[in-house]
Amino acid sequence: MSVELLSANHAAATAAILAGEANREAGGFGGGVYPITPQTECIELLCAHDFTKGEVVRVESEHSAMAVCMGFSLGGARTFTASASNGLAYMCENVFSAALYRLPVVMMAANRTLGPPWNIWVDHGDSLMLRDSGWIQFFCEDNQEVLDTTLLAFRLAEDPRILLPVLVNQDAFVLSHTMMQTDIPSQEQVDRFLPPLHLPHQIGDSPVTIGGLDFPHETEVHRKQHAEAMDRVFEVYEEVRREFEEVFGRKPEGPVVPYQLEDADIVFVSMGTTGSTVRTLVDRAREKGIKAGGLRIRIFRPFPGEAIRSALGGAKKIAVLDRNISLGLGGVTWSELKDWAPEGSLVQDYMIGLGGGDIRPEHLESLLEDLQKLEHEMHPKIVEVG
Q1: How many Å apart are CA 225 and CA 79, to the nearest integer?
Q2: Which of 4, 214, 357, 386 could be 219's S-S partner, Cβ–Cβ 3.0 to 4.6 Å?
Q3: Secondary structure element (H or E) that encloses residue 346, with its range
Q4: DSSP 7-67
């Protein structure tokens, strides 16, 4: 294991390269790629690597990139790609197809605001647009978590009890272009952690049709199987976390990450890099005698409702920080979390940092003051910080 200064883009690509090489005795590595800001550096590093077995195919669009990934995966290759924003939107049809084919593709998304008007900065709306696609979704807080999550995503996706694609999300520019010291495992360690991929429905020498016509009852069966696989994710993820720690000496965070929640009356819920800002807010509030706490959601799909309910405990007021907006509803995270909040608690939605505005401790301090004054839940609020 070595320590290097990496951007999160390069952290994701480094993990994908190590994972691809770990499959060299089986189907090797395969990926379809197309550049889009701010993930381009990820696929540039990927393209520069000469894989022992496999290749990276440069295509003409994001739609084709996922199509190539599906072909590689069906052929038994360990498969990775990356995209963002309108690239994910253009890819959308095949994102659903990859999940419905039950293919263990891993994709990194550098979360970026959907346009037009065109904006290249962070917003979670692009990957949350895909929340019903059947992909497992992780949100990462720092570069080390991006690298580690990409590695464990392959192990989780390829588990025969799961066989679902995984989306590893990171905040555009806040992480994608920020350099951090990152522990990089050796190839030998990754080989131990990631056994060769043997896809049960891998295409072989005999002719076979993939994705043919389903009649209604067949569709019901397939959707039931897909839902049951999603239901098994948390159990299998716990096993993967333990095995990751055995090999690499560090244990990835669980589906939710609590901070000073034991006696918290007021809790701020976040995803991605906002989690570190929330911790700063909590520390400042505690210094003033305010029983504040933080909760970072690390896995968004499947939604960790039971873990959220348990972590929130007896919280009386909950602020959900949504770096996204579902027009006509409010924040996506708030809309899914509020039914899991403690009975009688006030759950207020604050849509903040939309379009990439900086979320700073002073912004959250003003929200804390607002939350303290509230006696009942208000309409979701858009907070202007840009």
Answers
A1: 22
A2: 214
A3: strand 346-352
A4: EHHHHHHHHHHHHHHTTTTTT-EEEEE---TTTHHHHHHHHH---SSEEEEE-SSHHHHHH
- C-alpha to C-alpha distances, 167 to 98, 121, 217, 303, nearest whole angstrom: 12, 19, 29, 14
* Parallel, antiparallel or unpaired: strands 29-33 and 78-83: parallel
pTM: 0.97
CA distance linking residue 347 with residue 258, whole number of Å: 17
At residue 163, what is the residue type? L
Delimit the domains of the chain by residue range.
2-248, 256-383
256-383 domain in CATH 3.40.50.920? yes
Please, are residues 374 and 317 in contact by the beta-carbon 8 Å criterion?
yes
Q: How far apart are CA 166 and CA 158, in angstroms?
A: 10
The mean pLDDT of 148-168, rounded to a whole number, is 98
Answer whether 301's CB lies under 8 Å from 139's CB: no
CATH of domain 2-248: 3.40.50.970
Phi/psi of residue 207, nearest 5 degrees = -60, 140
Strand partners, 80: 106
Contacts of 381 by beta carbon, 8 Å cutoff, 6+ apart: 348, 349, 350, 351
* pLDDT tier at 181, thresholds 50, 70, 90: very high
The mean-pLDDT minimum among 108-117, 196-205, 239-248, 319-328 falls in 196-205
Q: Look at residue 147 and give its three-state secondary structure.
A: helix
The Cα 233–Cα 61 span in angstroms is: 31
* CB neighbours of residue 213 within 10 Å: 7
